[in-house]
Amino acid sequence: MTFDSVLHAMQQTLAGPLANPHMAQFGPEAVLNDDLHIDSVVLINLLVHLETDHGVAIPERDFRKEDFVTVADLIHVLLASPSAAVATEPEAAPANQDPSEITVHCFVSCLCAAIRRHEGLDFRPFYFGTWDSDFAVTAQQHLAYHSAEMTQDHYIGWINRLYAIDVSPWYDNTQSKADNLARFETLLHSTSGDRQLVVMLDMFHLPERDTKYNQDPFPHFVIVEPTADPEVWHMNDPDYRWRGDLPRAAILNAMAQPSVAGGYILDSTRARAPEPQDLLAYFNATFRPDANPLTDALRRIITYHGHTERPLALPELEIALRELPVLSLRKYAYEHAFAFFWRALGLSFAAFDAHCDQVEALCEGFRRLHFQAAKLAHTRDHAQLPDLIAALDALDRLEFTIKTALHAQFQTWCRTTQVAASISPNRSPETRAMLKGEPA
């Protein structure tokens, strides 16, 4: 394969089966996301078509978004050109480096933004259990990261218990959308200090924001604040680590979509550090040592769509797993947990980095699994199904390995904290009694 032949195959695929509406921008220097709106899901399907329809060999390697930006970059990666080689990462990092600036869960990230407003408060333990947070499987056996039945009550209750941060809904589901938006505008201009407004909006209808994920609909939680200009609002998107000013009308339009409804007031005026016994309870309440809900759900979905008695279901497997990239990102929450114990226990960076490598391997494994599933759906070749299940089983084993290592660090932290609590005059008898309990 030559550069020009792969370029031509990409053009044919995007213009043909993928029906990309932005082909006027296509060319070697076109930016994949900004110009062609190719997100991770479209990229997977592009690679599947290139391999199965055009004979382009897809390298056995991890595809990281940092490796390519333009069409030409991607072609060089596919051709394994020397210019596409990835730089070797250093084996160590400075002790003060923050290794956990990662996208995980939009609502949790908004709550963590309230925690991070206060110097000295560590937000990392609030990500405990987010790796197994709720998702839905539809009646059609499609994976969904959001549904109208989901609530945020779990996180609202725990952030109050752990950090004394109050979270109350401002959105009233018994009122009309127009009434709720009017109430939001009133609150926006009366909220100040450590009170913030969280809104749910549909990011697909906010093209001013580039999220690298062109999902439609795209329900997402962000924080909105006023500016000196009444027609311009400031949006803080903690999960994507983006903040900037956007037109008031654009934000209201994204909030007004029928695909979204919800919002909260965050009040961190009384924010404080969590008590050790509450962190212990939170970890135990969210840690599932004997189950990996996402891989369990994927196994059921793949088995359903791959059953020979449902030949028409197999092509739908690609659609059924479309939202897997959003859910697999939640596995990066393990890094937040390892970072907390790394700092609290004074562990070596090398040990922490090794755990992060396993987490990265898990997340990359889900990306490869998504590619395999899309390929199976496209070729309709049931002979590929055992390999797909085997890959899923391998991810299951890897995640259990990660959980075992994390639980061991949690147990060490419990023992260490128990000793510290027993000699601290500020600890109550109730605290000491709680810390004597064995972690789950």
UniProtKB/TrEMBL annotation:
Note whether Magnesium occurs among the keywords.
no
What protein does this entry describe? Acyl carrier protein
Record carries keyword tRNA-binding: no
> Which ranges carry the Carrier domain?
1-82
Q: Which UniProt keywords apply?
A: Plasmid
Query: From the record, what ranges are coiled-coil?
Result: none
UniProt xrefs under Pfam families: DUF6005
